[in-house]
Amino acid sequence: MSEDVREIDTSCVLDCPDACSLEVSVEEGRVTKIGPGTGNDITRNFICSKVGRFADRLYHPDRLLYPMRRLGKKDSKGEARFERVDWDSALGTITERFREIRDTEGGEAILPYNYGGSNGFLTDDLVDSAYFARLRASRLGKTICAAPTSEVAKGMYGKMAGVGFPDYPEAELILIWGANPRASNIHLVPFLRDAKASGAFIALVDPIRTLSTDLIDLHLPVYPGADLPLALGMIHHWAEAGRLDREFLDGNAVELETLLEAASRWSLDRAAKEARVDRESVRLLADRYAEASPAILRCGWGLERNRNGGQAAAAILAMPALLGKFGRRGGGYTLSNSGAGKIDASKLWDTSSWTTRIINMTELARVLNEPLSPPIRGLFVYNCNPVATVPDQNRILRGLMREDLFTVVFEQVMTDTARYADILLPATTFLEHYDFKRSYGSYVVGATKPVIEACGEARSNVSVFAELGRAAGFEDEIFHWTEAELRERAVAAIELQGKPVSPEPFATGGIHRYDFDGSPNPVQFESVFPQTEDGKIHLAPACLGPAPYAYQDVRSESFPLCLITPASARLVSSTFGEFNLRELHLTIHPDDARTRGIASGDRVRVWNELGEVECVARVDAHVREGVVALPKGAWMKSSLNGRTSTALTPSNVNVVGGGACFNDARVEVAALR
Ligand code: SF4
Predict the structure, then answer these.
(1) What's the CA-to-centroid distance between 52 and ligand 1, angstroms?
(2) Out of 119, 180, 206, 590, which residue is the most buried by the measure of CB atoms under 10 Å away?
(3) How far is Cα of residue 420 from the mean position of the Cα atoms in its chain?
(4) Residue from 9, 11, 14 to probe ligand 1 pocket by mutation (most atoms less than 8 Å from CB)
(5) CB of 402 within 8 A of CB of 370?
(6) Above 60 in pLDDT, residue 1?
(7) Rg of the chain on CA atoms, in Å
(8) Do 535 and 529 meet the contact criterion of CB atoms below 8 Å apart?
(9) 18: closest CA among 36, 39, 1, 43?
C-alpha cells in the first residue's frame, strides 16, 4: 500500500440497524476504499456493498457542490435548471423569504420536511429544530416509517430494550415477522446461520420468501394487511389449549382480557383463511413457538405498513408475554433497540417551546394541494427525498410545481425532490462532518468524523442552521456555539442505561458500547424491564384507540393485486438511488404473470386510480400470488415513465401513530405492447 494512503476509522450513520464500524482509505484527499472497521464486534467482518460504494456518491456527477438558485420562470420547476450563487446570497434569500411568509401568513406557513435517512443526532432534529421552533414553523409528524410499531412498543413495553443479535444462536426457535435481514439488517444473517447450525427452528412470516430454504424451516406467506387475524388466531389457539403463562401474566401484565376477547373471534381456520395461508402451517408454527424455550420473535416493520398495521404490531408483540418467553438469554423479542439509550435534546435547546400545529409527513400530497389554514408557502426539505418515498407521488409533484410555494432543498445529491427547489444547498455527508447515531439494532452508539475535506462548498446541517438562526437574529446559545461546543454538549446529554458516556469515541469516530449489568446485550426481565409508568406490560395499550384489535377488511373490489414496496439490497431508504438502482423491476408470481401473458423481462404497466408506473417484469415464485412488489425508495429515472411505486400508494394513515399505509395499494398489471 502506498504511503500516501491513510486508513481512518469511523462509523456508518445511515438508516440501518447494524451501525457498522468503517475503515476508510483516503488517498490524496479522496476516499478510495471503504471496508469494515474493528470497533463494532458484530460488523467487523463485512459491510454492505452499498456503503462499500459510498465514494460513488461522494464524487458522482449529481453531487451538489455549490449553492444554487432556480433559473426560469413560471412552470419551470422540476426542470433542474439552476445557476450557481454564493452562500451569503442563498442564505440571505431564505432569510428574507421566510420573513415575508411569517409576516403575511404566520410561521406555520413554513414546513420543515426531514427524516434522517442519511444523518445522525447532530445533523437531524437538533439545530435545525431549534431554528424552525424559533420561526414558529409547523412541526412535522415523522410517520413514514416505524410510527405504529413505535407507538405500540412504547405503550405496551415502554420501549424495553430487545434481544441483541449475538444472542440469537441461543434460541431454540426464531420467528421473523415482517422483516428481511438480507436487505436491511445483514449482520443478523450470520447469527441466524449459527442458530440454524445449533438446531434452531426458524420461521418467516412475510408475503415474500426473502430467506432461502436452507435457512428457514417454515414460511407463512401472509397476505399484506392480514397479519392481525393471523396473530390473533395463534393467540386464540394458545388460549384454548391452556398454553398461556398465567403466572407470568398475573404478575407482569394488564389488559389481558381485552386481547383475549378480540382473539376469541379468530379461530385458527378463520385466521388462516383471512391471511390466505395454510391452516396446518399456522398450527405448526403456533405449537412450535409455544413449546420452544428460549424463543425469539424478530418483529420487523413490513407488517405495519397497512391500515391494520398498529393493531397487528400489538398482537404480535404480545406473543412473548402471553407465553412467558422472557427471563432467559435468547428469549423475548427484538423490534427497535433505540429506546435503550436516551439523548435529552432539551439540555441543548428549549424543546418545549415548539408548540405549533403538527403536519403528518405521510399526508404531504394533501397538504400541498388542498386548502389548509394557513397554507404552506415555505417548504424546507433536508435529509430526505419525499418524491421518491412519500405516498401519492403525482400529487406531490403537482404541489411542488406551485409557483406560490418557496422550496429550499438542502441535499447531498440532485434527488428527484431537489429538482423542484427554488434554492438548492449542498450538504456534507457523514464522511465529511462530525455526527453520532444511537443504533436501533446493535447495542452501540457510533460516531463519525470528517475523513476528507468537504466536497466543493458543501456544508454541514449544523453550521447552516446555526447561520440561518443568527441571520434571523435569534439569540439562543445553540446558534452561537462552535461545532465542537455543540458536540461536547450533545455527548453530555446522552444516557445509556442511566449512565453517561465517555466523550472520547465521539471525537475519534469510534463506538460506544452499552453495558447491561456487565453484558453487552440485555436479557429481558432479567437486566431490562418494561419502562411503562407502572412497570407492567399493557396488552391493549391506549394507542390502539377505542377499538383495540379491530380488523379492517383488506380485500379490494377495484384492483386485484396488492402492491408492496419492501426494502431492497441496493438502497438505504432512497439513498444511493442516483446510481445503484438503474432499472425498476416489478416482482410478480408466476400464476399472476401467466394469466396476464407476462414473462420475465417484459415491459409492463402497473396502474390504479392514483397513477401508473412502467417498468420491467421479474417473474418470481418467492412473492406470493395476489401480491406484486416494487422496491422502496427507487428514483424516477429507474422507471420507463418517470414514476415509481409511490405514484400508486394512497396517503391514508394508520389510526395508530398516523403511520403510512404503503401496502394498502391495490393495482392491476398488463404487458406494454
Ligand atoms: S448501511 Fe447498514 S450494513 Fe451498510 S455499512 Fe451502514 S450500518 Fe453497515
Answers:
(1) 9
(2) 119
(3) 24
(4) 14
(5) no
(6) no
(7) 24
(8) yes
(9) 43
Using CA atoms, how far apart are residues 268 and 494, in angstroms rounded to an integer?
46
Q: Nearest-CA neighbor of 91 among 426, 417, 512?
A: 426
Note the residue count of the chain.
Answer: 673
User: Where do we find the cell 428481511?
Assistant: 180
Say what the pTM is.
0.96
Whole-number Å distance, alpha carbon 534 to ligand 1 midpoint, is 37
Residue whose entry in the numeric block shows the C-alpha cell 431454540: 172
Are 188 and 169 in contact, with CB atoms under 8 Å apart? Answer: no
Query: What is the 3 state secondary structure string of 206-271?
Result: CCECCCCCCCCCEEECCCCCCHHHHHHHHHHHHHHCCCCCHHHHHHHEECHHHHHHHHCCCCHHHH
Query: Cell numbers at residue 383, please?
Result: 435529509
Pocket test of ligand 1: the residue of 23, 45, 51, 429 to mutate, having most ligand atoms within 8 Å of its CB, is 51
Confirm if 648 and 610 have CB atoms less than 8 A apart.
yes
Task: Identify the three-state secondary structure at position 295.
Answer: strand
Cα 500 versus chain centre, distance: 27
Q: Is the peptide bond before 541 cis (omega within 30 degrees of 0)?
A: no
Q: Is residue 305 within 8 Å of 663, Cβ to Cβ? A: yes
Which range has the worst mean pLDDT, 174-183, 425-434, 549-558, 604-613?
549-558
Chain centroid to CA 514: 23
Which 3 state secondary structure label does DSSP give 629? strand
Cell of 568: 431492497
Could you tell me the distance, in angstroms and rounded to a whole number, from the CA of residue 299 to the centre of ligand 1? 19
Query: Which atom of ligand 1 is the closest one to the Cα of 18?
Result: 7
∠368-370-607 over CA atoms, to 5°?
80
Ligand 1 center to 334 CA (angstroms): 18
Q: Which amino acid belongs to residue 521?
A: N
For residue 215, which phi and psi values (nearest 5 degrees)?
A: -105, -35
- Exposed, middle or buried by CB within 10 Å (0-12, 13-18, 19+), for 647? buried
Integer Cα distance of 450 and 566 in angstroms: 32
Residue 2, pLDDT above cutoff 70: no
Cell of 401: 410545481
Amino acid at 617: A
Using the mean position of ligand 1's atoms as its centre, give its distance from the Cα of residue 184 in Å: 8
